[in-house]
Structure formats: C-alpha cells, structure tokens
Design a protein that fits this description.
elongated, 3-stranded mixed sheet, single chain, alpha+beta, 4-stranded antiparallel sheet, 16 helices, 61% helix
C-alpha cells in the first residue's frame, strides 16, 4: 500500500502533496502521523457503538406534594371551663400536701398522683379538655385521702424520723421532721432533733468508723472517732454504749499500767508515788487482786515509814523529858508495830520515867503524906536518872527532910476557952502552951460555953522561926 493512501483527506478541499522522503533516506514516517491515525480510528469506533446501542428514555421526577394545613376545631368553652375548675381544685388540694412533703410518708400513693398529674397536664396542653377534666377530677379523691392523713401525722412520723436519724439517713430524717413541723410547727422534739438530723450522715459515719476501730481493738482510734461524733452530736444513738465499752477497754489497759508503776514505786521505797497510782487503779477496779495486794504492801510500807517517823518524835520527847507525851507516842508506835524489840524497849522506858515523874509531882503537892514519905525513901538512892528527874527527886527529898524538922509553936488562950489542934491534940482551958509541930497546915479550934466556937488555921513553914497562935472565944450566943 502506498503511503499516500494513509493520509487524511483535507477538509478544506486543498490538495495536499505527500511529503517527500528525505534525501537522506532510510527514516520512517514522523510520529505525529501515527498519533493522528489512532485518533481517527477511536472516534470511528465510538460513533459506531453509539449508533447501534438501544436508546433509554429518561424518567421524569415526581413533584413534591405541598402539605395543606388542616384547620383546628374551635374548643368548647364549657369543656375548657370544666377542665380549669378541676385543675384549680387539684391545686388547692396539692398546696398543703406539698408543704407536708408527702414523698417521705405517702410513698407510692404520692408517686401515682404525680404521674397522673403529668398525664392530665399533657392533655390540658393538647387542649383535650375532656380527658384533662376527667383526669383532674379523678385525682380529687386520692388527694383527699392523703389530706385525711395529715391530722396526727407528727405522732406517726416521729418514730420514723428517729429511726432514720439513728441510721444516718440524713435526707429522710430531715424530710420527715420538716413534714412534722409543717403540720405542727411547735413540735419541740422535731425542733430539737432537726439540726442534729442535718448532720446525721456524718455522725453515723464517724460512729461506724469508731465501731470498726473497736472491732480491731484499736481503742485509742475508736475513742478519737467518738470524740468527733460528740463534736457533731453529743447524743447520737449508740455512741454512749460504744463509749462505755471503749472507755472500759482503755481503762483496763491503763489499769495494768498503773499497777505496774505502783509496784515499781514500792520497790523504790516511794509510797507517795505508789499511792498515787494505786488510787487510779482502785478507782477503776477496787476489788481486783492486784489492787488488794498492792494496798497491803503499801500499807506495810506506810506503817514502816510512820513507825520510823514516830520513833524520832518519841525520842525527841524523851530528850526534852516530856515523859507523858513520849509514852503516848510509844503507845501509838506499839499499836502499829507491837512486836519489834526496840518498840517494846521504848515503851517500857517511857512508862518507867512517866511513873517517876508523876510520883515526884504528887509528892511535891502532898509533901506531908505517908505516901510521899515512902516515895522519898525510894528516891534517896538513884542511878542513871535523867537529869531533870534527878533534880526533881533531889528537891523532893530535901523538901521532905525540911518538913520533918519540927518548929516551936506557942498557943495562947484566956483560960476560959478549951483549945484543940485538929488531928493533933486537945487541951482544957489554959493561958499558954508550947509545942513542936512539923511543917504543914494546921487548924486550932476553941470552944467555950455560951460562946461561938472559933477556928484558927495556921501554916508551919519548914525551917521557920517560932510562931504564936491565939485561940479565944469572944462572940457570945
């Protein structure tokens, strides 16, 4: 096939000449010629397919319908008025009930009423006044039944409020108390409990914590939690019982510590410290065996210390030669410790010198008695006497000896009077009598017929000079 046949026919009618081969020869046709050929073939194939394919007609789109508003019927004024009256009646019934918080005491009944009101309100909003009126009217008996429960409500709610409070149900207890106060504003129990109920959940939680610690025997932590309960509510139910238990357990631990410290103080010979801890332990458990044993040992130590102290006092009294006081002190010591040898010796010593002292005192007061004469003879020979008693004995002996030296006494009368010296001698009438009398007190008595008797007391002093005594009856009867 000649190359000219492959050339396209010019569209403008112009005659084209085929290109001449390059003089160089040996090269093929130019690339753009091949591209053109391929393009013409592709167009031809496309036109052929399009011509012989069946033709599909397009489906026209359906028009979108435009909604036509339906006119609402005009509501019947009478029906609306009926629904309004029923609604107003429900509102009047609801007002006091809502104040009484019936959700806390009416329960399911109040929930049903609430749902029915929502349904009726929806019908009212939809202008379905027939259904709304019927629904409101049907609520009236139920609301009246709830209202009938208001009288006496505080008495019925009071135990429920207390139970909720004790269980830490703050919202329930507060709601019940407020419901009570809405019916009876002056209810003193509800007024007092309400502020405590507002923290009932916290109080209950703290109490539970304290119980948990007590269950683990962590008594200090339990006590701390109970203190927090008291800070919130010092009368929360159950706290007192737990506090008593925790206090007892803590006391038992402290009791053991007090007993140990008391015995340690006894070993240190410190009765004051031991007694201080003993008092604490005895206050907790006075009948405990350890308390009785400790008290016994402490008593022995106290006695020992008291005996030592009183011994010093008794010996100090002996130094002062206060034998009566010393003897009384030794008696006290003997009542505390009668078997100790030095106590017996001290008691006997003080008694000996106390008796001597009493003899010296009585002999000095009654120098002329036979008893004094006996004591004087006893006291003439003395060995190892206390200085004070020895001096008193010497003085008594000397006084006694002087009293044994007679003194010249002249008794004068009128030769008409009978004269006697009481318990010494009697005379008939005389003018003058001379005699010797030992020192002492005497009484001369005179008697004369027709005259009153006379008594003349006189004292003969030891070592004194001659003395005169006149006895004459001069007063007639």
């Amino acid at each position: 096939m000649e190359d000219e046949l492959l050339q396209p026919i010019p569209l403008d009618g112009e005659k084209r000449t085929s290109p001449k081969p390059d003089s160089g020869g040996g090269k093929g046709p130019r690339p753009f010629l091949w591209i053109g050929v391929l393009l013409v073939l592709g167009i031809g194939v496309f036109v052929g397919i399009n011509r012989f394919s069946p033709r599909v007609e397009p489906v026209p789109a359906e028009p979108i319908p435009i909604p036509i508003p339906i006119p609402s019927p005009t509501p019947d004024p009478a029906l609306r008025e009926r629904a309004d009256r029923a609604l107003q009646a429900v509102v009047e019934q609801m007002r006091p009930l809502r104040q009484a918080e019936p959700e806390w005491w009416a329960g399911e009944a109040w929930s049903r009423v609430q749902k029915k009101i929502e349904t009726a309100d929806q019908w009212m909003a939809d202008a379905d006044f027939v259904r709304a009126a019927e629904a409101y009217e049907a609520l009236i008996p139920e609301l009246e039944a709830l209202s009938a429960r208001l009288p006496g409500l505080p008495e019925r709610l009071w135990p429920l409020a207390n139970a909720a409070y004790a269980n830490g149900e703050r919202d329930r207890s507060v709601g019940l108390l407020q419901a009570m106060l809405s019916v009876e504003s002056g209810h003193t129990g509800a007024q007092a409990l309400l502020p405590r109920a507002r923290v009932a959940d916290q109080s209950f939680e703290r109490l539970q914590q304290a119980r948990d610690f007590a269950g683990k025997s962590e008594w200090d932590l339990a006590w701390a939690e109970l203190a927090r309960v008291d800070a919130l509510d010092d009368d929360f139910p159950g706290a007192d019982e737990l506090r008593e238990r925790v206090s007892g357990e803590i006391g038992r631990l402290e009791f053991q510590e007090w007993i140990s410290k008391a015995f340690a103080a006894l070993e240190r010979q410190d009765p004051e410290e031991a007694e201080r801890f003993l008092k604490r332990a005895a206050a907790f458990d006075p009948d405990h065996a350890a308390v009785r044993d400790l008290d016994s040992q402490l008593g022995d130590l106290r006695v020992q210390r008291q005996v030592v102290r009183m011994r010093g006092e008794a010996e100090a009294l002996e130094e002062k030669e206060q034998w009566k006081e010393a003897y009384e002190r030794w008696l006290e010591i003997s009542s505390l410790d009668p078997n100790t040898p030095w106590v017996k010796e001290g008691l006997a010593r003080a008694l000996k010198w106390k008796v001597v002292e009493e003899k010296l005192e009585r002999g000095t007061l009654h120098i002329g008695t036979a008893q004094t004469a006996q004591w004087v003879e006893e006291f003439r020979e003395r060995t190892d006497w206390p200085a004070g008693l020895d001096a008193k004995a010497s003085e008594l002996v000397e006084t006694w000896d002087r009293h044994q030296q007679p003194v010249d006494v002249v008794v004068r009368s009128d030769f008409e009077t009978e004269v006697s010296i009481v318990r010494v001698l009697n005379w008939d009438a005389f003018i003058e009598k001379k005699l010797e009398l030992k020192p002492g007190s005497y009484v001369a008595r005179g008697r004369r017929m027709g005259y009153r008797d006379v008594r003349v007391p006189f004292e003969v002093k030891p070592g004194g000079d001659k003395m005169d005594v006149t006895v004459i009856c001069t007063e007639g009867i």
